[in-house]
Every structure is written in structure tokens, then in C-alpha cells.
Fold this sequence. Notes:
Helix content is 32%, strand content 29%.
Amino acid sequence: xxxxxxxxxxxxxxxxxxxxxxxxxxxxxxxxxxxxxxxxxxxxxxxxxxxxxxxxxxxxxxxxxxxxxxxxxxxxxxxxxxxxxxxxxxxxxxxxxxxxxxxxxxxxxxxxxxxxxxxxxxxxxxxxxxxxxxxxxxxxxxxxxx
Length: 146
């Protein structure tokens, strides 16, 4: 399977320095902390787009570098094909973050993140469901061995 690098359209860069780059675990911890802050402030029960916009602001406040709403074609037999794939967040070119505001995470939601991981060559994805009383109960960490 061919992997490709995401472009930098709609990029939002924080003020982090590259010489102090965090590993994926530290970065995912920081991402989850930002999500918890948004959830603590807003609570459950809102639309996904509200959480996405507020998380955009929180990432900026915490200097977490990210790209938002990345449309991604796939490469098939040397042709780019638009499949409607859109990443909610691509954080520091290393972690995919997919947001949900649903009653319960379903296998299709996990399959969506795993698809993004496979097609981007990224190792780590976070699936975050904001429609839970305690956010830690709505977090799924998905990883691929490449």
C-alpha cells in the first residue's frame, strides 16, 4: 500500500520548537489533555462541530501544532482518487485525531481511524467521543505497526 505525506493546507502551527520534539506518547498525552479541557468546559451533548472548533482554539492555546480538516485522496495504480476521506486533525504530522459526539463508539468509527492510519502511513490515532459524562471513557487509542 502506498503511503503519502499530507500537505500543509489549512495548517495551524503552534510555537513548539523542533529540537524539543515530543514522542508520540507524550504528544498523545498532551492532545488528550486538550480534549479533556474542552470537555470540562463544554460538557457532553453538543454537536461534533462545536467540539472541533473549540479544540482548534485549545490546540492553539497549548501550542500544539496541527492541521485541521485534511481532505485526503488515495493513490491507486499511480492515480490519485478522491474518496471523501477527511481527517479531523493531523497533529504534528504524527497523530490522527478523529472526533465524535455519538451515543456509543461503534466498530465503524474504529475502522475509519484505522483506514486513515493505513492510508497516511501514520502510526497513532486517537478516536475521541465527546458525548460521554467522563471523557476518559470516550477515548480510544489506535496504533498500527508499520
